[in-house]
Amino acid sequence: DSAPSHQVIRPEPCGVCGSRIRFGKAAIKCRQCQLLLHPKCREQCPSPCTPQPRHHAWPREGVLADFAPSTPPLVPALVVQCVTEVETRGLTETGLYRVPGAEQLVREWKQRLLLAGGALPTLGSVADIHVVCGVLKDFLRGLKEPLVTFSLHPAFLQAADIPDDAACSTALRHVVSKLPPANRDTLAFLMLHLLRVSRSPDCKMDVLNLSRVFGPTLVGHSSANPTPLAIMEDTPRQCKVVAQLLSLPPDFWRGFVGTEQENLVPT
């Protein structure tokens, strides 16, 4: 349901084709999801966004469990949808998760998905897959506490530092099992996804590259306001945690999200 056209005050990307709508040009803005588009792109607009009752909209911010479904696997629909989209058409892209998507589009799409709550608009109309990657990273970074939680943060760092591989693996599995269920399921879902990315020759994103990108995003710091010293000391250790998690056998992760991801693929 498109609102009457409005004048663009500053150049903004069209939500359908991604190219800029120039200053002073007419644009259409959707009343429900605030999507901005060229009048000519109206036909290609993704399936109509159904107005959701307000209480279904997700919180603007929260811990992971606030976004998770009520039945397992407890992986937020936003995470599932971004991952599914990336695996559908992104596994041939070089630098997946490393190459940034246009910031403005990442912000707009994250906003749309959060406002939509359960019934997510399709991501098929996002031309640049790096924008989808950006939305996923931005969502994980924007949580009130990192995926590994503040309380288990030190345990993850300690486990990843164990020099003996077998002991390190055992310790990490133990810490993962102590995570809140939604954090644990989502971590498992993401690890299986990142392993698939790492195995794609076209992406050129091995485990080390992915752990550099996802260390700060998934592991973060042990408090909401880390000191500059903590930030400096944490960074290499965050990457180490993700690299070690990615070296755990895929079957360990499948144990949390099921071998088949039937109920995870959005319909």
TrEMBL record:
GO molecular function: GTPase activator activity; metal ion binding
Domain Phorbol-ester/DAG-type: 5-49
Pfam families: C1_1, RhoGAP
Gene3D superfamilies: 3.30.60.20, Rho GTPase activation protein
Record InterPro entries: C1-like_sf (IPR046349), PKC_DAG/PE (IPR002219), Rho_GTPase_activation_prot (IPR008936), RhoGAP_dom (IPR000198)
GO BP term (any one): mitotic cytokinesis
This protein's name: RGAP1 protein
Species this protein is from: Lophotis ruficrista
GO cellular component, one term: midbody
Annotated keywords: Metal-binding, Zinc
Domain Rho-GAP: 62-253
